[in-house]
Design a protein that fits this description.
homodimer; eight-stranded parallel beta sheet; 8 strands
């Protein structure tokens, strides 16, 4: 237990460990978020392998929503009874004012944390510029309940967190900058983050399960993976049993599901699978610039998934 | 004159041609836009070589502002008397709702057009996804006064407009999709755009002046360049005289100014020059993740500019 930190004085939910889904956002035909389906999906995820949820990650198409749309949706999800102790909210935007507004809301709602992208419009920005951005965010939010997770996803954002920057932020803001989602897809980077910071009550979550077992063995806090939207159970099995003899086989099973999804754009692919399993066409909808998966690719994806042995059709049991 | 188009029936300012500055946004110490300085700068630009202004381009740090901040600032600039006939507003965001809101405002204010970035969070998105994004934008704005300029800046946005996509958009929305700012820095691309679309009353503006003369010779509508914030006059000289015998020398003079700036980050560099020339420290301010230019680099930039022969100190005469 850390001896010093905001946790001692203010009410903040315990840090979430384990398997988290960056929750897909269902949309109506008119491109409006469908709250009912979203809440249903959140509940199902928490009952089917997820220890926690991230609302408004990349998989959620969060950056395709306005700040107002995100705030309303977060309120609606919490009002509908999804436990804020299980909820991390994505709050990072290009604009510092927007990130401040969303991060304040995440705290006010009593969520377990804020997952924050770096500002991603300008490229090749200096680490010092990112440090000032995050420093300004934390200073202007000015709330000791803030629990900030860094969102490192260079394949999409193109702007990321170097190891020295992560270290500088955790040293300057201990107890506030408490973890990272590492979606670099680079095992060496994840390993280096854990080795360098894992001992400081800093939680490292790989952004996918391809090396989940190896990461847990060296001290990862869990995993935040898009595929958890349909296949959290195989991930939870790895998380529960990583010290046990059969762990390698569990990792392989989870890995096969990942590989099936990786052949297609992941967000449309996950939505196609949900639409099929739930017999609910609406789940296919994505916001532009994304496109729904074609029928041909959907069929191929379903076949690949079936080959992995994962009972994806049982999603319909919700 | 085009025989068919929204221009015949509704009030829209004439299309701007020539030299446009993507206007720098001055900030106070508290990171708030400084309206007084912005309006002063706009007026000065229009009196010193600019045919028009783009509020909220990359150079304006527009994506570092919230939608609300942008809307307020646009209103304040127009209220202060900057002619909307001279004004194009940057309105493209990652979120379609945000782009719709800003584009509607650009029309309501009576501006000469909207310059729209593609949604830039997701990378490697299909052309069809971008086509649907712009189609939805135009259909949902649903206003025949809309005059939309595509903002192609792949070095920053990473997402851009292929030539087939530009052609498809202009064919589907003639009289609405009326031009492009091509900040690819790729002369071959600019040339291909003009060759393919220039005859269709479609205006191609190179995003910098490095090949302005060559572009004008094949039919470019002008140029929208960051450096116009301090050095519009040399660009205006090229624009006025591109058919004249001395055009090559004028282009070379403009090119030398560009080269001086290119050694440093362009936004902090331009602001350092304005701060120095106007003896106004506040102009140095940038929003994170950008950093102000260091004193050492500023001195080197000033020296390089002086070497070009461009009288940058005379900016103080405003």
């Amino acid at each position: 237990m850390p001896a010093i930190g905001p946790d001692d004085n203010v009410m903040v939910p315990a840090k979430i460990k384990g398997i988290l889904a960056p929750v897909l956002t269902p949309f109506d035909q008119n491109a409006q978020p469908n709250v009912g389906r979203l809440v249903g999906h959140c509940k199902w995820l928490l009952e089917n392998g997820c220890d926690g949820l991230v609302l408004f990650g990349t998989t959620s198409e969060a950056n395709s929503l306005s700040v107002g749309e995100r705030k309303r949706l977060a309120e609606q999800v919490v009002s509908a009874g999804i436990s804020t102790r299980k909820l991390i909210l994505g709050t990072g935007c290009c604009s510092l004012s927007d990130s401040i507004e969303l991060t304040k809301q995440a705290i006010e709602l009593g969520s377990a944390g804020a997952l924050v992208l770096p500002p991603f419009y300008y490229k090749s920005v200096p680490d010092e510029g990112l440090f000032r951005y995050f420093g300004s965010l934390i200073d202007r939010v000015s709330d000791e309940r803030l629990r900030l997770y860094l969102y490192h996803i260079p394949p999409v954002a193109q702007v990321g967190f170097s190891l020295p920057l992560v270290r500088k932020l955790t040293e300057r803001y201990p107890g506030t900058v408490v973890g990272i989602k590492d979606s670099s897809g680079d095992w060496e980077n994840t390993k280096a983050l854990i080795a360098s910071l894992g001992a400081h009550d800093f939680d490292v979550f790989p952004g996918n399960e391809s090396y989940l077992l190896a990461a847990l063995q060296v001290g990862a806090a869990g995993c935040i993976s898009a595929t958890a939207n349909v296949a959290a159970r195989p991930l939870q099995a790895v998380f529960q049993s990583w010290r046990a003899p059969g762990a390698k086989e569990l990792q392989e099973a989870a890995g096969r599901v990942r590989i099936a999804f990786q052949k297609y754009p992941i967000i449309p692919g996950l939505k196609a699978v949900l639409a099929k399993a739930l017999n609910d066409e609406l789940w296919k909808s994505v916001l532009p610039p994304l496109l729904p998966l074609s029928s041909a690719d959907s069929e191929k994806l379903f076949a690949s998934l079936t080959e992995t042995g994962f009972p994806w059709q049982q999603l319909s049991m919700r």
